[in-house]
Amino acid sequence: MDNKQNFVETLHTQQKKQEKNKRSQGKGHPDKVLPNNQH
Fold first, then answer.
1. Which residues of 5-38 are buried (b: 16+ CB within 10 A; e: fewer)?
2. Which of 20, 26, 29, 38 could join 33 via S-S bond, C-beta 3.0 to 4.6 A?
């Protein structure tokens, strides 16, 4: 039972990280991505 709880907790953590990365990198929303060169 403890192993199952640990797995679910890890899964939720990974999903939060993926969602954060998706938002910060602008996947699916190219207009929200920062340009590479900021001069």
1. eeeeeeeeeeeeeeeeeeeeeeeeeeeeeeeeee
2. 26
Cβ proximity of 22 and 14 under 8 Å: no
- Asked whether the CA dihedral 4, 5, 6, 10 is positive or negative, the reply is positive
Instruction: State whether residue 28 is helix, strand or coil.
Output: coil
35: left (phi over 0), alpha (psi -120 to 50) or beta: beta
